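Hypothesis: this fold can be encoded by more than one sequence.
Test: take the structure tokens below, design a sequence, compare later.
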């Protein structure tokens, strides 16, 4: 006997729409902001996404949340020229996530860069 299954996760269309909205924020180009200012701007929106789309199946949101982390690493690389190398910027990002684990709302689901 087969049972119909249903996973109430985010649809591909909604994921595409959220990804394009995230791209439109151009986080990596906001080098005039501090990390805390970026968190203040991003957190309410991402928290709402996580509550709405990730209520039942939050692992489907992980690619989107990892993309936010990738933009944050790109922001670090552009803002601090001494961290322009990917490995240095990634190490700096991991240090920030360990020192301030609650700074960004999405870090409770996806703190690691990968």
């Amino acid at each position: 006997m087969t049972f119909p299954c249903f996973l109430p996760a985010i649809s591909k269309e909604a994921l595409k729409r959220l990804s394009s909205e995230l791209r439109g924020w151009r986080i990596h180009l906001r080098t005039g902001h501090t990390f805390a200012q970026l968190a203040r701007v991003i957190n309410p929106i991402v928290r709402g996404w996580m509550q709405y789309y990730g209520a039942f199946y939050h692992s489907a949101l992980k690619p989107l949340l990892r993309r936010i982390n990738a933009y944050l690493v790109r922001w670090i690389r552009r803002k601090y020229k001494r961290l322009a190398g990917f490995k240095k910027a990634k190490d700096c990002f991991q240090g920030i996530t360990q020192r301030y684990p609650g700074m960004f709302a999405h870090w409770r689901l996806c703190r690691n860069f990968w």
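Helices lie at 12-25, 35-53, 62-79, 86-99. The mean pLDDT is 91.
Hypothesis status: open.
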